[in-house]
Amino acid sequence: MTTAVQRRRGTNTEHASFTGLEGEISVNTTNESVHVHDGSTAGGFELMRADGANSTVTLGDISGVTAGTGLSGGGTTGTVTLDIDGTVATLAGTQTFTNKTLTSPILNTPTIGTSFTIGGATITETELEILDGATVTTTELNYVDGVTSSIQTQIDAKAPLASPSFTGNVSVGGTVDGRDVATDGTKLDGIEASADVTDTANVTAAGAVMDSELTSEASVKALNQGVATTDSPAFAGLTVDTDTLAVDSTNNRVGIGTASPSRTLHSKGGSGISTTGKFEAGGSQVYVQLSSSGQADGDSGYIGYDSSKNLTLFTDNTERMRINSSGNVGIGTSSPTSKLHLYKTGTSDNKLTIQNGQNAYASILDLRANNDGGAIYNSLTSTTDGGTQHWKIWGGAASSTMAFSTGGSERMRIDSSGNLLVGNTDRNTIVSNGASGVAIGGDGFIGASRTNESLVLNREDSDGNIAVFRKDGTTVGSISTYGGNRIAVGNGDTNLAFIATSDVIVPAYQTSNRDNAIDLGTSSVRFDDIYATNGTIQTSDRNEKQDIAELSDAEQRVAVACKGLMRKFRWKDSVAEKGDDARIHFGIIAQDLQDAFEAEGLDAGDYAMFISTTWTDEETNEEKTWMGVRYSELLAFIIAAI
Asked: Distance between CA 634 and CA 642 in Å, rounded?
């Protein structure tokens, strides 16, 4: 070993290759460190560094300290001593030990107001810290796990930075006061009983049971349960704020706003008009489901409300009724257009039924004011569906009248005799004094009266009957129209048609004319007088005649004889009616004409001038014969003899 101290200076690179002599000292100008050399190790051994403010002892051991006296030094905050043999070390201020292992005994009680930290310097680093507040009673232990930045566990006065999470068994030797774990505005969520929880006073190993009370700090009053069981505990009852929420465990009822619920769920509002419940959906529709025990959702009933302000009712998963935003009620339709809108597809069972409980076919609608009057609609007196009385409007008293009014005035009534009166209140005034109105009687009477026409019948489009008249169900006549502007009156194929455009009356049949087919009168039913400005016209067209020939000698002799058959006479019925005032007529007696033909060996019935008709009188059932003469032909016959 050298006997003299030699010094060298050099950079970090130069020191790395410099061995030096044993005991030689060199200075590293790069990091301002002092090195000692052993004569064989390149770079030597660093003793210390100095940056002008701090000095660091680089070697791991310091020798030369007397045992038991410790290491002491001073500073601005006081003397610091450390007893390596276990004697108490007094630390003034906070001291940091890095990468050191301490064996028991390690530390004595720290001075009040100081703290001792093992671990990192920030909350995200694992550490164990003993810290103090103002007094010994507030000494705390703080543990940070170093994984989640905000999770800490503290004991005593300091509030936790966050709620810790525990796994495994937790044993509590006494009672935990809720005021130590909750502040105003927070709540105690409870203990998850996946592991045993032991409370010597209130908790058994069979399960987690908690006892707490309402305080100014705790905002929730918990339950008081003393049953130890592995099953779900049965609560004896629960009451919040007298009647805000009440549970009746005896009758399985819950009351909201009442302490005495009378139903499974009984909600009671305040005095006056109040809302006792509200169901609000997160979307545009909300439904309340009603089901019997074990019933599937699709078979349940629903009451719904949507954002379009429709209240709906469902059964068997199908909408049956709704009330829309306009207050219209729809049954069978989702678009009601009136206050009550009923709809059913198809044609069967489309009806409204209001039925009482007397029998299956009782009154569908019964409105009755009292014993003296009322109204019944569709009151079936029969007890079978085939009852004959299907629609009935009934006034109770025998003298009652049912009246119908519009615009504040009576327009129609049905009187106690069953007469339907329109525009009048008395059937007789319509018939006797011409008062305006219409009367229809239950006896078949129909009467109408007004200052103008009282009956208008209009047939549209085609020709045919406008009115048909019957006797005992058999048609006896009709009034019909044909040809656009013609009216015919008659029966069957015998009608007289009135043609206004031609000013004529013609024989007709329904919608056509009937030429040379209808007689005017009969031998037994004759017209009395015919007034005409001109005589009758008989067709004498040669084209319509045959067997044209001159008179025979016998016929000429009859014609000559007819000249002497002229007589004057009076009609018996005229004499019976007028007496001596009956007028005298001229003509030939039909029987005399018949005799004149027979005198010449001729039959008068073969000639049209002579008519003989035999019939049975309907009144006397007596057979009668009536004879007549066609004077137009008789006159032509006599002229042939001149």
From this structure: 13
- Which range, 2-6, 364-368, 398-402, has the best average confidence (pLDDT)? 398-402
For the chain, give every domain's residue range.
7-57, 459-518, 551-642
Banded pLDDT at 470 (limits 50, 70, 90): very high
| Mean pLDDT, residues 191-219 | 43
- The whole-angstrom separation of Cα 92 and Cα 78 is 6
Residue 375, phi then psi, degrees to nearest 5: -145, 135
The burial of 246, by beta-carbon neighbours within 10 Å (0-12 exposed, 13-18 middle, 19 or more buried), is given as: buried
Is the per-residue pLDDT at 234 higher than 70? no
- Rounded to an integer, the average pLDDT of 28-36 is 81
- Contact indicator for 624, 607 with CB cutoff of 8 Å: no
Residues near 450 by Cβ (< 8 Å), separated by ≥ 6?
436, 437
Sign of the Cα torsion 314, 315, 320, 321 reads negative
Using CA of residue 462, residue 464, residue 469, residue 474, what is the dihedral sign?
negative
Give the pLDDT confidence score for residue 591 in this predicted structure: 95
Closest CA to 129 of 153, 150, 151: 153
pLDDT of amino acid 145: 57
The pTM of this model reads 0.38
Instruction: Indicate the fold that domain 7-57 takes in CATH.
Output: Seminal Fluid Protein  PDC-109 (Domain B) (2.10.10)
* Average pLDDT of the chain to the nearest whole number: 73
3-state secondary structure 342-382: ECCCCCCCCCCCCCCCCCCCCCCEEEEEECCEEEEECCCCC
CATH of domain 551-642: 1.10.10.10
Indicate if 551-642 has the same CATH topology as 7-57.
no
The pLDDT of residue 551 is 92
Burial environment of residue 20 by CB neighbours within 10 A (0 to 12, 13 to 18, 19 or more): buried
